[in-house]
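quick one before i forget lol
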Amino acid sequence: MTLYELVERERRHVRGREVIAGALLVGGAAALIISLGAGVLGGSRWLALPRIVPFIVWAFVLAAAGALAWRTRRRLHRGATRAHVAHAIEAEQRLRRGVLLGALELDGHGALAARAAAAARGTLPDDGALAPALRRAGHKRAVVAAGAAVAAALVLISATPVFGDGLRVVFRPIDAWRGALLARPVIDSAPSDLIRGAPVRLLVRAPGRQRVMLSIRQTGEAWHTDTLRVDPTTGAARWSLEALRGDLYLVATDGRASSDSVVIHAADRPFLGAVALHVTYPAYLGRAAENLPVGEPLRVPRGTLVDVSGRASVALASVGLTAESGQSIPLTASGHAFTGRFTADHSARLRWLASGTTGPVSDLPAPLELEVQPDSAPRVEITAPTGDTVLAAEGVVALGITASDDHGIAQLALRLARIGATGDAPATEQAIASAVGTTWVGTANVDVAALQLQPGNAVRVHAEAVDASPWTQHGVSRDLIIKRPTVEESRVGARQLGDSAAKEARAAAAAQKSLAQRTDEASRAQSRNGGSQGSQGSSSRGNEQSQAQRGMSYENAEKARALAQEQRQMADRVQKLRQSTQQLEQQLKAAGALDSSLARQLSEAQALLRQAMTPELMAQMQKLESASKEMDGDRSRDAMRDLAQMQQRLKEQLEKSAEMLKRAAAEGAMQTLADEAKELAAKERALADSDRAAAQKGQQQPADRKNDAQPGEKKGEPQAGDKQDAAAKAKAAAELAERSQRLRDAMQELKDRLAKDDAKAGAAKTGQAQEHASNSESGMRRASAKMQEQNGGEKKGEKSGAEKNGAEKNGAEKNGAEKKGAEKNGAEKNGEQRVAKSGDQRGQKGGDQRGAKSGEQAGDKNGEQSGQQGGQQSGEQEARDAADEMQRAAQSMQDARQSQVADWKKELTSELDQSVQEMMQLSRQERALEQQSASRGAGRRAPSSRRGRSARWPRRRTRSPRRRRAWARAAAMGRSRPVHSAMPPMR
């Protein structure tokens, strides 16, 4: 790369950051201005503001965009020029000022200029940033611009639900100008004819407005306008008139759009009235029939029978109801009375039609507003598990299901369908319940073992409910994917669960330690307060107990209750930790990594956690809560003191459990990584063996087909099946390389964690395993590349075969060798190039031999076949070497576990011996003190007060940190207590 290209590369980075920052600032400014415009125009204020306001908002947006674009252009002309970038590189690379700029300016002006450019180019690195500070500055500006854009976008998003109409106005200014942004106001419930003197009640539907103007004129009067307030929830405004004196003309407008004109005619004609409605509900609802009032919306369930009856002031010839859709419901007329029945299937606005013997009847009742409420479909949900995908390690998965319906659920079932590559298989049904009422809550078990899922296969599950209505409506839950994990996924899950359990155990031990300290401090503080109060009341010893009870303040009682509550929470935390340990054991078992050692450690950890929460501890917490509730000072102090001692023992149990889980997690991770490495080694070796078999078959196939070639078929041409096999092998090699990379990353993570935990032996061996895994990954990638080259060489075989005749005519060995060397698929050159890339000396020797052999047999075989064989053998060797490296990685992981366990045992033995020596020294010192005390006070009585006992025994009861660690590690290695022949009994 030349000096000019290096500088241009750095310049492109600088320009790119500036352009990105400018674009983000433009977007953020536009979003902010639009948000402000939406706030100004929202709440239907745009109807009162001038129509040009939305266009002004866009003018501000364009002005801001132009200003920011001009600013970005200035920054590009000022800070992204070649001279500026060159000076920045000189400054950051500590070059003499002007060296790069002078070389760039004199580029192409002679040998000296070229020499100066080469010298300057030699001081610069090929890779990496030449001006990192300049790049960081541009990146910082881009990040700041991105933050501003995100903030503006958040402002815009937050303004959407509040000022949604304002945003619509901003984005559709032309429609807002013409009044087409909202639906036109509609005057509803206006009858065409009304009896003179009757009141008029109207609804003006104008959703999205705050107010609407209604223009009114009656016959003989002038136009006048009433401003009506629109209900924001219904989007309608109500208007009424006391009495209709003549024909009424109505027009509604919001200032931008107007409704159609509505005319209500005042009539003095025969009327229809005394309408009665009787409804009979569907039988499945179990509701009694009833009469409904006329003049209100008729809300009935679907399938309801409606009986209509009434009378007219004149003899009727015909009467009926008609819907707006044209559907007609005839009624039976008998003189002045009429009756009829219809079934309510859908909502409709039914208008009356009637005619008497003398003509049509225009004075009719208000239309029937029939609102049919359809039976809602049942609702069913899968409440547990909450995730979309469940990795099922066990044979049964329990699903939490809730179902509800407004009237009743007839059937509840599960639908299971196996997921395939071409789609889901036919679903099978698993019944759950039937005729369960309106609500059902329970669990349903899915037997994954019965589905016979292979590792990696999955099944789609959803719950389905059918209601008890005549229409048998269905409700379906979300889809839940139940997947049987692959072995690799099980191992990864085991490692993650082990790390999580160990981390939670350490956190629980630390929290319990803090809680024990606070409980002890609270007990001591309360004892001091009680002692001081007792000294003040020494004059009346008979009331000492009552004074202590009254001396317990509300604050101390609250502290005691809080400590007891925290200990209860700690108990729940320990229970969850125990469940996590059980899940870890199951996960290791599913991954095939649970040997007897790990099983013993996990069992002992569970036993420690189970023994940690003793009934005495729970009883002590209840005692402390009761004493604090009764404000009993003595009982509270005693309970708190005893609780602090039990908490100390619980802390020690948790520390032991944490140590066990930490080491079990480390051993489990080592074992799963070793198993993964063994599996990868076996698959890589199998791929190498299949590649060798394909290579041997390819060597025999051209000789077998030499005399059997059909007319028009070229000899030695590879078949489509061979190409597909080669492509499949290359893809398999690439997948194995990806798995090797994931294994290498997992080993690196484990190595870092072991080093952090001071597990040097395991970390060192894990590092060796990581190196072998990295070598295996590189080998498989080379094998995949060579297999792909082999596939490409087969495609070019026709061209090499077409040039075969020229080599035969020449007949010279040298000429044939040179021709095959000129071709890209020539064996000698191809073999040497591939071997030079991989560094394999054996492949180079084989390539030379194959090239020589190709040259000798130029009249029989072409260069493409020889190159193909070399590529096959080279890919096979790479895969085999990768398998060997992966096998070494597996062995290294096994050695890591053995070495680390041995190291832990050695460390434990050393610390146990040192602890024993300390305990023996302590015992000798105590005996010496007892002898001195006996010699000095032979005739005195030994102190038996509580204070004397507390001064003599703490050192024998208190364990040093080293001894506590020794006990924890002894438990982690499978021993419940360190044993030594000279160890005195623990008190």
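fyi Residues 492 and 672 are 8 Å apart (CA to CA).
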